[in-house]
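Suppose you are handed only two things: the residues of a chain and a line of SMILES describing citrulline. What would the bound structure be? This form records exactly that question and the answer produced for it, so the two can be stored side by side and reused later without any lookup.

QUESTION INPUTS
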Amino acid sequence: MTARQAAPATRSAQPAGTPRVDSEVGPLRTVLLHRPGAELKRLTPRNNDQLLFDGIPWVDRAQEEHDAFAGTLRSRGVEVLLLADLLAEALADRRARAAGVWSAVDERRLGLDLADTLRSHLTGLDAAALAHVLTAGMTFEELPAAEGASLVRRMHHPHDFAIDPLPNLLFTRDSSLWVGDRVAVASLSMPARRRETSLTDLIYAYHPRFARTDRAYGAHSAPVEGGDVLLLAPGVLAIGVGERTTPAGAESFARSAFTDGLAHTVLAVPIAQERATMHLDTVCTMVDRDALVMYPAMRGELSAYPILPDGDGGVLVDGPVPFLEAAAEAMGIERLRVIDTGLDPVTAEREQWDDGNNTLAIAPGVVLAYERNVETNARLEDAGVEVLRISGSELGSGRGGPRCMSCPIERAPLA
Ligand SMILES: NC(=O)NCCC[C@H](N)C(=O)O
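ANSWER OUTPUT
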């Protein structure tokens, strides 16, 4: 069997309501978002850099912006699932609560005694209260009162975190991703984000809605973040390799996707290891079945290492070759178009920083985008793309746009 013949099965028999994602632009049916909450209130000028936020968001306004984002999706018929709801529902299962408690309590930080005390306190909480602690974290002053306080408790500042908050849960794109009918729980590279995957893992393991879901990238641990993975077409993945996803991550994700029959070609795409380009989707996103919006400075610059299955459980690596050409070939199309935003370099750099290229397609040629990226949006419309604008003045302080803030769970097949 050739590599091409290993493409995933067609999905005409797939009934609506079954999780499955084969592309970036198939009509979006179900998406996972996280409405920002108490975890954002933990951000201070002392910790925002470490927690990967570029400012201190006004939380009420961020919630309003996020509600409007979810409202826009719902108005277009998309089912919006909220991570906090799924988490609380999954935690109804006793085993999920035990797993949540174990993942949150760090003996290296707390010492054995305090870790034991905290575990028994958390074990006594109901699902909603535990979900709150797992997302918002807990400070030392919020720990349950105790006789004979430990050295750890005495020596920490009351506002230090006994359990870190997870403000980047907002970016549901990164902590899990669907390829075909399988979900991959990502392996996040930044310490501030690693615990996020214990929550997505728990949701997919214990929420009844996902009871029959198989995993992709099962027990692998080399870093791969969802923002780096673009499903260019059924069976064709592009994986950014840069600040977050490593070469080992891209290679082992490819191997695992081939083994599971989820892909026939993976393109590993090098991107600069900088905050502005932390994921491939900060540089380019698909806006139509054969079109991308791309940071102009990257146009003609992106290369790719094509990875193919060797037919014996391993992989064959080629390249580097020009990304657009390799992508078009793998997708079986003549040309992968790049919408020509034609922006001057300063405007382009400003709008790229503000996630102008980070659009979320809800159908071929229909995208959600931040309203502030006036020039990029205008050029998209000139090219015939429908742009649904959302405001992100506060949401954007975490440095992520509509694609980063969404994890598609079901997209209809491309006709
Ligand atoms: N896919 C994305 O680009 N996600 C944005 C993640 C932003 C978050 N503050 C981070 O640094 O990881």
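WHAT STANDS OUT: The chain is about 30% helix and 20% strand. The pocket of citrulline is lined by residues 52, 168, 171, 173-174, 190, 193, 227, 278-279, 281-282, 398-400, 404 (CB under 6 Å).
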